[in-house]
User: Fold this.
Amino acid sequence: MLFGSASSAVAQRCPGAAGFNKWLEGFKQQAIAEGISSRTVANALNGVTYDPKVVAKDRAQGVFAQDYLTFQRRMVNKNRLAAGRARLNKYAPVFRRIEEQYGVPGPVLVAYWGLETDFGAFMGNLDSIRSLATLSYDCRRPEEFRVQLMDALRVLDRGDLQRAQMRGPTHGEVGQFQFQPSTYYNFAVDYDGDGRRDLVRSVPDSLASAANYIASKGWQPGQPWLEEVIVPKNLPWDQADVTIQRPRLFWSKYGVKYRNGQPVPADSTPAALLLPMGRNGPAFLAYPNFINVYLDWNNSLVYSTAAGYFATRLAGAPPLREGNPEPFSAEESKQLQRLLVQRGYDVGKVDGVIGAATRLAIREMQLQYGLPADGYPSHALLRKLQAGG
Assistant:
């Protein structure tokens, strides 16, 4: 989950630690009223203190501004690919059983497992209950975190984890797939048959729970999620965006081909043309499994594209054809966003992240200037905007 930083004005309105103990006593009573045992409430919340470091980290957490290739090279490296393949082999019977039951293939699960926690090696070391209590009391997003704190208590009350096992990063995510407590409570399954849904120590429970969650988002068994393609020099570039799905017939008609040179089938299967670094960089056909599931897991297009690509590599795809995209720094992206705002576009926060709103604005200005409208920032567009033409 990605959060932007709060303004100093918001920070000044927040109460600090002074009223935390009184608030916590009230939350304990609310939890008992909602059916959580008094023993669990006492064991989880007695002695919990306000953590100013969590609030500071929440305030400071920036948005994700790396470009796709930079992130992908770092996260989908040779070591992680080898480790992922080793786990596919080690847990092959578990993966076969999971795919039969949930329809989600092993490579998809292993890629997320590797990116989220390096296969369970790094799950975070903050006290999740303390973090959630602090953020539930804080003024920034209290309603969101109170739901998570209540469900964390339900996880404990159900006997899935011991209190000391609930450790993670700043926002209270738990386990090998970094589930928020509500996701844990609603989708965790006992897959090793020991009577507990243990997403910290049990690999079968963790993998099956991730599959259960992915299936709940509408995963289509047996269908692709992301396929690398080669694009011709001329396309209706304004149609190349993850938000625009066309029948594969559309892309086939314009000469889009798979990496092996075979043409894309001229059928009605919906697919978006995803160009994470513009028309000169890598290219993918993104299918409903990617658009509806991957982008729901994490709405960062950079992260989701890397996760989808990682899964294709584990499933046997060749290394990425990177192309020759135009380098464009985060600072240049911010400058471009500021110029687009001056033109009246709402790009959201000026943060250097090329999200959906920024891509749309870029595409409209590219069309206006007669540039290839691939929605990717370029120095040609930046110069025209700077010139004010």
Remarks:
- The CA atoms of residues 57 and 170 lie 7 Å apart.
- Strands lie at 126-127, 167-168, 226-230, 246-247, 257-258, 270-274, 283-286.
- Residues 1-12 have pLDDT under 50 and may be disordered.
